[in-house]
Amino acid sequence: MREEEEPNWFARWEEQLPSPEELMPLSQTLITPDLALAFDIPSVLSSPNPNPSLHHHHPAPTLHPPPPAPSSQPPPDFDSPDHLTTASSGGGASGAGAGEEPARTLKRPRLVWTPQLHKRFVDAVAHLGIKNAVPKTIMQLMSVDGLTRENVASHLQKYRLYLKRMQGLSSSGGGAGGGAGGPISAADAATDQLFASGSVPHHFLGRGPGPEPFMPFVPVAALQHHQQITAAMQQQHQQQQQYYQQRHMGHFGSPTGGSEGYDHGFLARTVPQPGMHRMVGPVAVGMVPPPPPSAPSAASYVEDLESGSRRGGGERRMLTLFPTGED
DNA sequence: GCATCAATAT
DNA sequence: CATATTGATG
């Protein structure tokens, strides 16, 4: 009965609406510049593109490993906004030997959930609604290449636990009881790193074991229609511009001299493979897949740059985390 | 096959 | 501690 209300989400949505630049033929969006470079293919951007207004601003959530450097690579600052930050804990000697590209059974480096990545995750969950917030859907909505269902599933587990904690937390007077059964304590601190980053929409959270508060459904059709560029929209253009530091890379492109363009499982996701109908295009507004009542279009939301590293509390600085733009 | 939870392993 | 991986179950 109370399904229509809360223009809030809608307003937010409007602000997050993808700009025209976002809505572009998939012919181009599927390949990110980095990828093109990495593969040594003539940048699609340089191609005689009939569409002059197509600037790929919001790089598809291309979360990928550092591109190979054919020669020298002085500029350390150039990175895609969201790389899949992977940490290679090689520890030491790991293979490094040679010859190996089973590509099929290769273990990928540990995925590092950076605030940005988590942001996307949370946004996706928030926009999907608890109902559809399942690993697969989230993964698709995030459109992050390299992300696997297991990755999301694993993170989702943790995320849910976090939410549960917050709910169960009711008061307790701030004192947290001195050592009492508060399962929460350090957890908050740790979780604070990402979950409590301030972007956690606890909306649908609490409502206890009851039915969902009903997630509104967005008329996708409306999205593909008149998209007037307003000042507000332009504002959102200034998002993303973080500098990462990750010094390690998995075994993708040989960091030094490896100029091979193999199909690392990771990148595979950005290329439209014939036979694979992965509609996870960055912008699939023309067609929403599932029939379910709630089927927001992918990439219909653009994350706003969120700070992400603050939490002083102790002094734990993630060394691999980007320099917090602000302090 | 997928989602979730739990336990376990890195 | 954060993820990954696996097993059990619905």
From TrEMBL:
Gene Ontology CC terms: nucleus
HTH myb-type domain mapped to chain residues: 113-164
Biased composition (Pro residues): 62-78
Alphabetic keyword roster: DNA-binding, Nucleus, Transcription, Transcription regulation
Single GO term (MF): DNA-binding transcription factor activity
Pfam annotation, one family: Myb_DNA-binding
Ranges of biased composition (kind: Gly residues): 89-98
Region (Disordered): 1-20, 42-110, 290-327
First-listed, main subcellular location of the protein, grouped into a coarse class: nucleus
Subcellular location: Nucleus
InterPro entries assigned to the protein according to its UniProt record, in alphabetical order: Homeodomain-like_sf, LUX/BOA-like, Myb_dom, Myb_dom_plants, SANT/Myb
Compositionally skewed regions (Basic and acidic residues) per UniProt: 307-318
PANTHER family: HOMEODOMAIN-LIKE SUPERFAMILY PROTEIN (PTHR31442:SF29), HOMEODOMAIN-LIKE SUPERFAMILY PROTEIN-RELATED (PTHR31442)
Protein name, as recorded: Transcription factor MYBC1-like
